[in-house]
Design a protein that fits this description.
Elements lengths: L2 E3 L3 E4 L6 H8 L2 H4 L10 H18 L3 E6 L5 E8 L12 E6 L8 H15 L5 E7 L3 H9 L3 E7 L6 E8 L6
Antiparallel strand pairs: 1-2, 2-3, 3-4, 4-5, 6-8, 7-8
Bound molecules: coenzyme A (COA).
The site of coenzyme A has 22 residues, from strand 5, helix 4 and helix 5.
InterPro entries: Acyl_CoA_acyltransferase (IPR016181), GNAT_dom (IPR000182), N-acetyltransferase (IPR051531)
Keywords: Plasmid
Organism: Streptomyces rimosus subsp. rimosus
Length: about 180
């Protein structure tokens, strides 16, 4: 069972009772503003997504972690790794992504989880490179990428929606764990 503890967070695989809090996060327009077409997800969509992330864990040995606050046991959101199939020009690659409930923003949790995820990518999965993909305007995500030491590699357009995208990358052999 893969679990990572940081000073304030537990990164772990998904439990059945994560569905309700994750569905609340996915139902919030502030959260979904910069994801896909910007529309909120219904609980069925969230349930399918968690199912898919769990399958990725089984098949790839990496996936999206459920991120829990150690102090309270609350599910704050998710962070983890996936293959960004939707953007063929960035492949082959493994991408890091993050999504937290608004009540958990502005406290450094997303950066703490992302840092631990890059350590996991390097030390546990032997990956030497990870990318992050964000829409232009998603300043909070660009801020995390910059703090992680990622550098702009590619400007692209979303193949379905046409939004301008930015792809940042990090060479993990130079990552300061
Ligand atoms: C993207 C997202 C995860 C960013 O969350 P966030 O809370 O802003 O990110 P961070 O964890 O970096 O925290 C930011 C701020 O917390 C503050 N902070 C407070 N306490 C802190 C602590 N103990 N340690 C570090 N930072 C702390 C810092 O000031 C930091 O801001 P700074 O980097 O400008 O100094 C969040 O906006 C989100 O979930 N958005 C919706 C989903 C989404 O769009 N995802 C991206 C598409 S995949």
């Amino acid at each position: 069972m893969i679990e990572i503890r940081t000073p304030r967070l537990l990164l772990r695989r998904w439990h059945d009772d994560d569905l309700a809090p994750m569905a609340d996060i996915d139902a919030d327009p502030r959260v979904m503003r910069w994801i896909d077409d910007g529309s909120v997800h219904d609980p069925e969509h969230t349930a399918k997504a968690i199912e898919r992330w769990e399958e990725e864990w089984d098949e790839e040995g990496f996936g999206l972690f459920a991120v829990e606050l150690l102090a309270s046991g609350e599910l704050a959101g998710c962070t983890g790794l996936s293959v960004p199939e939707f953007l063929p020009q960035a492949l082959p690659a493994v991408a890091i992504s993050w999504r937290f409930g608004p009540q958990f923003w502005g406290q450094g949790y997303a950066s703490e989880a992302a840092h631990a995820t890059l350590e996991f990518a390097l030390q546990d999965r032997g990956l030497d490179r990870v990318i992050s993909i964000n829409q232009v305007g998603d300043v909070a995500s660009e801020n995390i990428a910059r703090k992680l030491g990622m550098e702009l590699e590619l400007k692209a357009a979303h193949p379905v929606y046409g939004w301008p995208l930015r792809v940042h990358t990090i060479d993990l052999t130079e990552f300061q764990a």
